[in-house]
Amino acid sequence: RNGVDGKKKGKKKMSDGKLLKWANELINITVDNWGVPEAAVDLESKLNTKSFKSMDDSLFFLLGLAWAMEPEAINWEVVSNGSSYTEKLSNARYVISVARRLGALIFMLPEDIAQGNPKMLKLFLGSLLGLSI
């Protein structure tokens, strides 16, 4: 319900730090419980991030997050190392399709992930967070 000033009462804004903390904790808990999938061992160092600006390999973080939410959702055999823009774009298409299969509403293009667009990456994380609540 809106108050006199037009702001919604009882709603708190999720800060970037809290959003990243949630995502990193979920990935770490899953790695602790399940280990890193054999096909993703060489990508393990890219599964955590400290800021949206450092997410040029964001797709690995996003794939890791989708995997943490549903370990059987990711087929790591089809994920490339993302060394070229074409590979990043292919992986981005894949992570968007996985997120949609998990039930997330995704309002972004694969190019947003491949180019590391911070605003769109926050939106993507927020969509996945919404699934876990």
Properties at a glance:
133 residues, mainly alpha, 52% helix
Textual characterization of the structure:
It contains five helices and no strands. It is globular and about 40 Å long. It is mainly alpha-helical. The chain has helices at 16-34, 58-69, 85-102, 110-114, 118-132. The longest helix has 19 residues, at 16-34.
Total number of beta strands: 0
Shape: globular
- Given as residue ranges, the uncertain stretches (5+ residues, pLDDT < 50) are 1-6
Radius of gyration: 15 Å
Task: Let me know the largest β-sheet.
Answer: none
% residues in beta strands:
under 5%
Arithmetic mean pLDDT: 77
Order of helices and strands: HHHHH
Would you tell me the structural class of the helices and strands? mainly alpha
The end-to-end span amounts to 21 Å
- Count of helix runs: 5
Residues in helices, as a percent range: 40-55%
Q: How do the strands and helices of this protein lay out in sequence?
A:
Elements: H1 16-34, H2 58-69, H3 85-102, H4 110-114, H5 118-132
Helix pairs in contact: 1-2, 1-5, 2-3, 2-5
Briefly summarize what is shown.
52% of the residues lie in helices and 0% in strands.
